[in-house]
Amino acid sequence: MGSFGSLLTAVAGLRAQSSAMQNISGNIANSQTPGFKRVETSFVDLVPQQPLTRQVSGSVTSFSRATNSLAGEFLATNRDTNVAISGNGFFVVGQPPGQTSGVNRQGPELYTRRGDFELDRRGYLVNGAGYALRGTMLDRNTGAPMPNQGSGFIQITQELLGRLDPRPTAQVTYQAQLPTTPGNVSGDIQWPAPPATAPLTIGAGAAEEDFLRNSVPGGSVTVYNGIGAIGSMNLRWVRTGPATAGPASEWALYYESRSGTPLDAWRRVDPAVTFNAQGQLSSAPQLNASAVEINNVVFQDITLDITGMTNNDTGGSVIPTFIEQDGFGVGRYESVSVSEDGVVSIAYSNGQVRPVAEISIVGFFAPNALRRVDGGAFEATRESGDPSVALARSTLTSGGVESSNTDISEEFAKMIVTQQAYTANTRVISTAQDMIREVLNVVR
To answer: DSSP secondary structure string, 295-338?
Structure first.
Protein backbone atom coordinates (compact mmCIF):
# COMPACT_ATOMS: atom_id res chain seq x y z
CA MET A 1 0.00 0.00 0.00
CA GLY A 2 2.95 2.32 0.46
CA SER A 3 3.52 2.86 -3.27
CA PHE A 4 -0.16 3.23 -4.03
CA GLY A 5 -0.58 5.58 -1.05
CA SER A 6 2.31 7.79 -2.20
CA LEU A 7 0.78 7.88 -5.68
CA LEU A 8 -2.57 9.07 -4.31
CA THR A 9 -0.86 11.59 -2.00
CA ALA A 10 1.14 13.03 -4.89
CA VAL A 11 -2.06 13.40 -6.94
CA ALA A 12 -3.66 15.28 -4.02
CA GLY A 13 -0.56 17.47 -3.88
CA LEU A 14 -0.92 18.25 -7.59
CA ARG A 15 -4.52 19.30 -7.01
CA ALA A 16 -3.57 21.51 -4.06
CA GLN A 17 -0.72 23.22 -5.92
CA SER A 18 -2.95 23.68 -8.97
CA SER A 19 -5.49 25.44 -6.77
CA ALA A 20 -2.73 27.67 -5.37
CA MET A 21 -1.54 28.49 -8.88
CA GLN A 22 -5.10 29.39 -9.89
CA ASN A 23 -5.35 31.89 -7.02
CA ILE A 24 -1.92 33.32 -7.83
CA SER A 25 -2.86 33.82 -11.48
CA GLY A 26 -6.08 35.56 -10.46
CA ASN A 27 -4.21 37.85 -8.08
CA ILE A 28 -1.69 38.82 -10.74
CA ALA A 29 -4.40 39.36 -13.34
CA ASN A 30 -6.22 41.76 -10.98
CA SER A 31 -3.16 43.57 -9.68
CA GLN A 32 -4.43 46.80 -11.33
CA THR A 33 -8.13 46.34 -10.49
CA PRO A 34 -9.34 49.04 -8.04
CA GLY A 35 -10.46 47.66 -4.70
CA PHE A 36 -9.47 44.07 -5.54
CA LYS A 37 -8.67 41.80 -2.59
CA ARG A 38 -6.19 39.04 -3.28
CA VAL A 39 -6.98 35.42 -2.43
CA GLU A 40 -4.33 33.46 -0.59
CA THR A 41 -4.06 29.66 -0.44
CA SER A 42 -3.67 27.67 2.74
CA PHE A 43 -2.89 23.97 3.01
CA VAL A 44 -4.08 21.42 5.56
CA ASP A 45 -2.85 17.87 6.03
CA LEU A 46 -5.20 14.87 5.94
CA VAL A 47 -3.97 12.09 8.26
CA PRO A 48 -5.63 8.63 8.28
CA GLN A 49 -6.41 6.99 11.58
CA GLN A 50 -3.51 4.64 12.37
CA PRO A 51 -1.87 3.14 15.47
CA LEU A 52 0.84 5.22 17.08
CA THR A 53 3.65 3.21 15.48
CA ARG A 54 1.98 3.19 12.06
CA GLN A 55 1.32 6.92 11.65
CA VAL A 56 2.05 8.51 8.26
CA SER A 57 2.42 12.12 7.16
CA GLY A 58 -0.82 11.88 5.21
CA SER A 59 -2.23 13.67 2.21
CA VAL A 60 -2.99 17.38 1.64
CA THR A 61 -5.83 19.61 0.58
CA SER A 62 -6.06 23.32 -0.03
CA PHE A 63 -8.56 26.08 0.73
CA SER A 64 -8.76 29.76 -0.12
CA ARG A 65 -8.20 32.46 2.47
CA ALA A 66 -9.64 35.94 1.85
CA THR A 67 -7.86 39.22 2.56
CA ASN A 68 -10.93 41.49 2.56
CA SER A 69 -9.74 43.32 5.67
CA LEU A 70 -6.35 44.24 4.17
CA ALA A 71 -6.48 47.64 2.46
CA GLY A 72 -4.63 48.56 -0.70
CA GLU A 73 -2.75 51.79 -1.28
CA PHE A 74 -4.46 55.07 -2.14
CA LEU A 75 -4.24 55.86 -5.86
CA ALA A 76 -4.95 59.50 -6.79
CA THR A 77 -7.22 60.06 -9.79
CA ASN A 78 -8.10 63.77 -9.32
CA ARG A 79 -11.79 62.99 -9.81
CA ASP A 80 -14.02 64.34 -7.07
CA THR A 81 -16.51 61.47 -7.26
CA ASN A 82 -13.80 58.81 -6.84
CA VAL A 83 -13.66 57.78 -3.19
CA ALA A 84 -11.42 55.50 -1.15
CA ILE A 85 -12.22 54.07 2.28
CA SER A 86 -9.58 54.55 4.96
CA GLY A 87 -10.20 52.02 7.73
CA ASN A 88 -12.79 49.29 8.13
CA GLY A 89 -15.92 49.31 6.03
CA PHE A 90 -17.51 48.71 2.65
CA PHE A 91 -19.60 50.73 0.22
CA VAL A 92 -23.17 49.49 -0.13
CA VAL A 93 -23.93 49.00 -3.83
CA GLY A 94 -26.31 47.18 -6.12
CA GLN A 95 -27.60 46.93 -9.64
CA PRO A 96 -29.17 50.31 -10.57
CA PRO A 97 -32.92 50.27 -11.21
CA GLY A 98 -33.82 49.52 -14.84
CA GLN A 99 -35.84 51.70 -17.14
CA THR A 100 -37.56 49.00 -19.16
CA SER A 101 -40.70 48.95 -17.02
CA GLY A 102 -42.47 50.95 -14.39
CA VAL A 103 -41.66 48.40 -11.69
CA ASN A 104 -38.11 48.35 -10.35
CA ARG A 105 -37.03 45.03 -8.91
CA GLN A 106 -34.65 45.77 -6.09
CA GLY A 107 -31.68 43.38 -6.15
CA PRO A 108 -29.72 42.21 -3.11
CA GLU A 109 -27.35 44.57 -1.36
CA LEU A 110 -23.73 44.06 -2.29
CA TYR A 111 -20.60 45.43 -0.65
CA THR A 112 -17.40 46.62 -2.24
CA ARG A 113 -14.23 48.64 -1.67
CA ARG A 114 -14.11 49.71 -5.30
CA GLY A 115 -14.80 53.45 -5.26
CA ASP A 116 -14.20 54.66 -8.83
CA PHE A 117 -17.69 56.16 -8.98
CA GLU A 118 -18.87 58.37 -11.83
CA LEU A 119 -22.23 59.91 -12.67
CA ASP A 120 -24.06 57.99 -15.39
CA ARG A 121 -26.67 59.42 -17.75
CA ARG A 122 -29.44 58.87 -15.18
CA GLY A 123 -27.55 60.53 -12.34
CA TYR A 124 -26.53 57.38 -10.45
CA LEU A 125 -23.03 57.11 -9.02
CA VAL A 126 -21.78 53.94 -10.74
CA ASN A 127 -18.33 52.37 -10.34
CA GLY A 128 -16.24 50.69 -13.04
CA ALA A 129 -17.93 47.34 -12.42
CA GLY A 130 -21.40 48.79 -13.05
CA TYR A 131 -22.61 48.83 -9.45
CA ALA A 132 -24.59 51.88 -8.27
CA LEU A 133 -23.87 53.46 -4.90
CA ARG A 134 -26.50 53.27 -2.19
CA GLY A 135 -27.18 55.89 0.46
CA THR A 136 -29.64 58.42 1.83
CA MET A 137 -30.79 61.43 -0.16
CA LEU A 138 -30.78 64.78 1.68
CA ASP A 139 -32.94 67.82 1.19
CA ARG A 140 -30.86 70.39 -0.67
CA ASN A 141 -32.18 73.32 1.36
CA THR A 142 -32.37 71.88 4.88
CA GLY A 143 -29.96 68.95 4.78
CA ALA A 144 -32.59 66.67 6.36
CA PRO A 145 -32.77 63.01 5.25
CA MET A 146 -35.34 62.15 2.62
CA PRO A 147 -36.43 58.51 3.16
CA ASN A 148 -37.57 56.20 0.37
CA GLN A 149 -35.90 58.23 -2.33
CA GLY A 150 -34.54 56.46 -5.43
CA SER A 151 -35.04 52.94 -4.03
CA GLY A 152 -32.12 53.49 -1.68
CA PHE A 153 -29.70 54.59 -4.42
CA ILE A 154 -27.96 57.95 -4.60
CA GLN A 155 -29.27 59.75 -7.67
CA ILE A 156 -28.26 63.27 -8.66
CA THR A 157 -31.34 64.36 -10.60
CA GLN A 158 -31.60 67.07 -13.24
CA GLU A 159 -33.35 69.24 -10.68
CA LEU A 160 -30.26 69.16 -8.44
CA LEU A 161 -28.02 69.86 -11.43
CA GLY A 162 -30.15 72.85 -12.43
CA ARG A 163 -30.09 76.38 -11.08
CA LEU A 164 -30.08 77.21 -7.41
CA ASP A 165 -32.60 79.96 -6.70
CA PRO A 166 -31.25 83.13 -5.08
CA ARG A 167 -31.69 83.93 -1.41
CA PRO A 168 -32.24 87.59 -0.51
CA THR A 169 -30.01 89.11 2.13
CA ALA A 170 -31.90 89.27 5.42
CA GLN A 171 -29.07 89.75 7.89
CA VAL A 172 -25.59 91.21 7.86
CA THR A 173 -23.18 90.29 10.63
CA TYR A 174 -20.99 93.34 11.13
CA GLN A 175 -18.19 93.76 13.63
CA ALA A 176 -15.79 96.70 13.80
CA GLN A 177 -13.74 98.85 16.13
CA LEU A 178 -14.88 102.47 16.26
CA PRO A 179 -12.44 105.20 17.32
CA THR A 180 -12.92 107.08 20.57
CA THR A 181 -11.83 110.30 18.85
CA PRO A 182 -12.56 110.11 15.13
CA GLY A 183 -10.32 112.64 13.44
CA ASN A 184 -9.59 114.12 10.04
CA VAL A 185 -8.20 117.30 8.55
CA SER A 186 -10.99 119.36 10.14
CA GLY A 187 -10.55 117.91 13.62
CA ASP A 188 -12.96 115.78 15.62
CA ILE A 189 -16.02 114.52 13.77
CA GLN A 190 -19.38 115.73 15.04
CA TRP A 191 -22.46 115.64 12.80
CA PRO A 192 -25.94 116.48 14.03
CA ALA A 193 -28.29 113.51 13.81
CA PRO A 194 -31.25 113.90 11.43
CA PRO A 195 -34.76 112.89 12.46
CA ALA A 196 -34.99 109.12 12.87
CA THR A 197 -37.93 108.85 10.50
CA ALA A 198 -36.37 110.69 7.57
CA PRO A 199 -33.37 109.73 5.44
CA LEU A 200 -30.40 112.05 5.47
CA THR A 201 -30.05 113.47 1.96
CA ILE A 202 -26.85 115.32 1.16
CA GLY A 203 -26.79 117.46 -1.95
CA ALA A 204 -23.87 118.53 -4.07
CA GLY A 205 -21.58 121.20 -2.80
CA ALA A 206 -20.75 122.17 0.74
CA ALA A 207 -23.41 119.99 2.47
CA GLU A 208 -22.18 116.79 0.86
CA GLU A 209 -18.59 117.72 1.49
CA ASP A 210 -19.38 118.42 5.13
CA PHE A 211 -20.98 115.00 5.56
CA LEU A 212 -18.10 113.14 3.95
CA ARG A 213 -15.60 115.22 5.89
CA ASN A 214 -17.40 114.63 9.19
CA SER A 215 -17.92 110.89 8.80
CA VAL A 216 -15.62 107.90 8.58
CA PRO A 217 -15.92 104.95 6.14
CA GLY A 218 -16.99 101.70 7.73
CA GLY A 219 -16.49 99.24 4.89
CA SER A 220 -18.98 97.74 2.45
CA VAL A 221 -20.89 94.50 1.98
CA THR A 222 -22.51 92.93 -1.08
CA VAL A 223 -26.25 92.27 -0.68
CA TYR A 224 -28.84 90.44 -2.83
CA ASN A 225 -32.56 90.85 -3.40
CA GLY A 226 -35.20 88.22 -4.17
CA ILE A 227 -34.37 87.96 -7.88
CA GLY A 228 -30.62 87.77 -7.35
CA ALA A 229 -29.77 91.41 -8.12
CA ILE A 230 -26.54 92.55 -6.50
CA GLY A 231 -25.84 95.78 -4.67
CA SER A 232 -22.87 97.13 -2.79
CA MET A 233 -23.90 98.54 0.58
CA ASN A 234 -21.29 101.19 1.40
CA LEU A 235 -21.28 102.16 5.09
CA ARG A 236 -20.16 105.31 6.94
CA TRP A 237 -20.21 106.14 10.64
CA VAL A 238 -21.02 109.52 12.18
CA ARG A 239 -20.42 110.39 15.81
CA THR A 240 -23.59 112.12 17.01
CA GLY A 241 -22.77 112.74 20.66
CA PRO A 242 -21.63 113.83 23.09
CA ALA A 243 -19.87 116.91 21.77
CA THR A 244 -16.81 116.44 23.96
CA ALA A 245 -14.26 113.76 23.19
CA GLY A 246 -14.30 110.68 25.42
CA PRO A 247 -14.88 106.95 25.55
CA ALA A 248 -18.65 107.16 26.16
CA SER A 249 -20.23 108.06 22.85
CA GLU A 250 -23.19 107.78 20.49
CA TRP A 251 -22.88 106.88 16.82
CA ALA A 252 -25.14 106.65 13.78
CA LEU A 253 -24.64 104.33 10.81
CA TYR A 254 -25.48 105.34 7.24
CA TYR A 255 -25.47 103.49 3.95
CA GLU A 256 -25.12 105.03 0.50
CA SER A 257 -28.23 104.94 -1.69
CA ARG A 258 -27.90 106.44 -5.15
CA SER A 259 -31.38 107.32 -6.37
CA GLY A 260 -30.47 108.05 -9.98
CA THR A 261 -30.80 111.82 -9.46
CA PRO A 262 -27.85 114.20 -9.31
CA LEU A 263 -28.01 113.92 -5.53
CA ASP A 264 -26.34 111.23 -3.43
CA ALA A 265 -28.61 109.92 -0.68
CA TRP A 266 -27.13 108.67 2.58
CA ARG A 267 -29.76 106.91 4.62
CA ARG A 268 -29.54 106.32 8.31
CA VAL A 269 -29.83 102.86 9.86
CA ASP A 270 -31.76 103.00 13.15
CA PRO A 271 -31.40 103.02 16.08
CA ALA A 272 -28.36 104.95 17.30
CA VAL A 273 -25.43 102.96 18.65
CA THR A 274 -24.12 103.85 22.12
CA PHE A 275 -21.03 102.75 24.00
CA ASN A 276 -20.20 103.01 27.70
CA ALA A 277 -17.06 104.48 29.24
CA GLN A 278 -15.25 101.17 28.77
CA GLY A 279 -15.94 101.19 25.03
CA GLN A 280 -18.41 98.31 25.20
CA LEU A 281 -21.71 98.27 23.34
CA SER A 282 -24.53 99.44 25.60
CA SER A 283 -27.37 99.73 23.10
CA ALA A 284 -29.35 97.09 21.20
CA PRO A 285 -27.01 94.78 19.20
CA GLN A 286 -29.22 94.92 16.09
CA LEU A 287 -29.83 97.70 13.59
CA ASN A 288 -32.65 97.77 11.07
CA ALA A 289 -32.26 99.11 7.54
CA SER A 290 -35.79 99.43 6.19
CA ALA A 291 -36.63 99.30 2.46
CA VAL A 292 -33.03 99.31 1.35
CA GLU A 293 -32.54 100.87 -2.07
CA ILE A 294 -29.20 100.98 -3.87
CA ASN A 295 -28.78 102.48 -7.34
CA ASN A 296 -32.52 102.29 -7.98
CA VAL A 297 -32.53 98.57 -7.13
CA VAL A 298 -35.01 97.76 -4.38
CA PHE A 299 -33.94 95.34 -1.66
CA GLN A 300 -35.79 94.05 1.37
CA ASP A 301 -35.39 95.08 5.00
CA ILE A 302 -31.94 94.11 6.27
CA THR A 303 -30.95 93.53 9.89
CA LEU A 304 -27.37 94.34 10.90
CA ASP A 305 -26.09 92.31 13.84
CA ILE A 306 -23.34 94.35 15.49
CA THR A 307 -22.81 92.10 18.52
CA GLY A 308 -19.23 92.41 19.71
CA MET A 309 -18.61 95.88 18.27
CA THR A 310 -16.30 98.05 20.41
CA ASN A 311 -15.35 101.72 20.69
CA ASN A 312 -11.57 101.81 21.12
CA ASP A 313 -8.81 104.16 20.08
CA THR A 314 -7.98 103.10 16.52
CA GLY A 315 -6.17 106.18 15.30
CA GLY A 316 -9.27 108.04 14.15
CA SER A 317 -10.63 105.45 11.69
CA VAL A 318 -13.05 102.54 11.72
CA ILE A 319 -11.45 99.09 11.54
CA PRO A 320 -13.94 96.48 10.24
CA THR A 321 -13.01 93.06 11.65
CA PHE A 322 -15.82 90.90 10.24
CA ILE A 323 -18.53 91.48 7.62
CA GLU A 324 -20.75 88.63 6.38
CA GLN A 325 -24.24 88.39 4.92
CA ASP A 326 -26.61 85.45 4.45
CA GLY A 327 -27.78 86.01 0.86
CA PHE A 328 -26.57 84.81 -2.52
CA GLY A 329 -27.40 85.14 -6.19
CA VAL A 330 -28.48 82.62 -8.80
CA GLY A 331 -26.22 79.55 -8.89
CA ARG A 332 -25.44 77.09 -11.66
CA TYR A 333 -24.16 73.55 -11.21
CA GLU A 334 -20.38 73.20 -11.26
CA SER A 335 -19.28 69.92 -9.67
CA VAL A 336 -20.11 67.02 -7.36
CA SER A 337 -17.78 66.12 -4.50
CA VAL A 338 -17.63 63.79 -1.50
CA SER A 339 -16.44 64.79 1.97
CA GLU A 340 -14.46 62.59 4.38
CA ASP A 341 -17.63 61.83 6.37
CA GLY A 342 -19.43 60.53 3.28
CA VAL A 343 -21.61 63.53 2.40
CA VAL A 344 -22.16 64.07 -1.33
CA SER A 345 -22.36 67.79 -2.11
CA ILE A 346 -22.98 69.90 -5.19
CA ALA A 347 -20.99 73.10 -5.74
CA TYR A 348 -22.69 75.98 -7.53
CA SER A 349 -21.29 79.00 -9.34
CA ASN A 350 -22.46 81.39 -6.60
CA GLY A 351 -20.13 79.79 -4.07
CA GLN A 352 -22.81 77.68 -2.39
CA VAL A 353 -22.09 74.03 -1.56
CA ARG A 354 -25.22 72.02 -0.79
CA PRO A 355 -25.30 68.47 0.67
CA VAL A 356 -27.61 66.24 -1.36
CA ALA A 357 -26.83 62.68 -0.18
CA GLU A 358 -25.02 60.64 2.43
CA ILE A 359 -23.08 57.50 1.49
CA SER A 360 -23.83 54.28 3.36
CA ILE A 361 -20.69 52.67 4.85
CA VAL A 362 -21.09 49.39 6.75
CA GLY A 363 -18.82 46.89 8.45
CA PHE A 364 -18.92 43.20 9.40
CA PHE A 365 -17.82 41.13 12.37
CA ALA A 366 -16.03 38.73 10.01
CA PRO A 367 -15.31 40.56 6.73
CA ASN A 368 -13.12 37.72 5.44
CA ALA A 369 -16.17 35.46 5.49
CA LEU A 370 -17.96 37.48 2.80
CA ARG A 371 -18.76 35.64 -0.44
CA ARG A 372 -17.18 37.00 -3.62
CA VAL A 373 -19.22 37.96 -6.65
CA ASP A 374 -18.23 39.56 -9.94
CA GLY A 375 -16.89 43.08 -10.11
CA GLY A 376 -15.03 43.18 -6.81
CA ALA A 377 -18.26 42.96 -4.79
CA PHE A 378 -19.25 40.70 -1.91
CA GLU A 379 -22.38 39.17 -0.44
CA ALA A 380 -23.10 38.77 3.24
CA THR A 381 -23.08 35.23 4.62
CA ARG A 382 -24.10 33.62 7.88
CA GLU A 383 -20.45 33.45 8.85
CA SER A 384 -19.76 37.15 8.10
CA GLY A 385 -22.74 38.40 10.10
CA ASP A 386 -25.14 41.17 9.21
CA PRO A 387 -23.87 44.56 8.02
CA SER A 388 -23.63 47.20 10.71
CA VAL A 389 -22.95 50.93 10.52
CA ALA A 390 -21.36 50.77 13.99
CA LEU A 391 -18.62 48.45 12.69
CA ALA A 392 -17.62 50.86 9.90
CA ARG A 393 -14.83 52.74 11.67
CA SER A 394 -13.52 54.65 8.70
CA THR A 395 -13.20 57.94 6.86
CA LEU A 396 -13.40 58.68 3.14
CA THR A 397 -10.81 60.29 0.91
CA SER A 398 -12.06 61.76 -2.35
CA GLY A 399 -10.05 62.30 -5.50
CA GLY A 400 -8.73 58.74 -5.68
CA VAL A 401 -9.44 55.04 -5.26
CA GLU A 402 -8.10 52.15 -3.25
CA SER A 403 -5.81 50.05 -5.41
CA SER A 404 -5.52 46.27 -5.37
CA ASN A 405 -3.78 44.81 -2.32
CA THR A 406 -1.85 42.41 -4.58
CA ASP A 407 1.94 42.61 -4.38
CA ILE A 408 3.35 41.51 -7.74
CA SER A 409 6.80 40.56 -6.39
CA GLU A 410 5.24 38.51 -3.60
CA GLU A 411 2.94 36.70 -6.04
CA PHE A 412 5.87 35.83 -8.33
CA ALA A 413 7.76 34.41 -5.37
CA LYS A 414 4.72 32.29 -4.49
CA MET A 415 4.45 31.19 -8.12
CA ILE A 416 8.05 29.93 -8.16
CA VAL A 417 7.58 27.97 -4.94
CA THR A 418 4.26 26.56 -6.18
CA GLN A 419 5.81 25.50 -9.49
CA GLN A 420 8.64 23.71 -7.71
CA ALA A 421 6.20 21.92 -5.41
CA TYR A 422 4.09 20.89 -8.39
CA THR A 423 7.17 19.56 -10.20
CA ALA A 424 8.21 17.65 -7.10
CA ASN A 425 4.81 15.97 -6.90
CA THR A 426 5.07 14.90 -10.53
CA ARG A 427 8.45 13.32 -9.71
CA VAL A 428 6.82 11.46 -6.83
CA ILE A 429 4.21 10.09 -9.23
CA SER A 430 6.93 8.96 -11.66
CA THR A 431 8.91 7.30 -8.87
CA ALA A 432 5.83 5.56 -7.46
CA GLN A 433 5.02 4.32 -10.95
CA ASP A 434 8.53 2.85 -11.32
CA MET A 435 8.24 1.14 -7.93
CA ILE A 436 4.90 -0.42 -8.86
CA ARG A 437 6.38 -1.60 -12.20
CA GLU A 438 9.27 -3.28 -10.37
CA VAL A 439 6.84 -5.08 -8.09
CA LEU A 440 4.90 -6.34 -11.10
CA ASN A 441 8.14 -7.54 -12.72
CA VAL A 442 8.98 -9.59 -9.60
CA VAL A 443 5.68 -11.41 -9.86
CA ARG A 444 6.45 -12.35 -13.46
So the answer is: TTEE---EEEE-TT-EE---TTS-EEEEEEES-B--B-EEEEEE
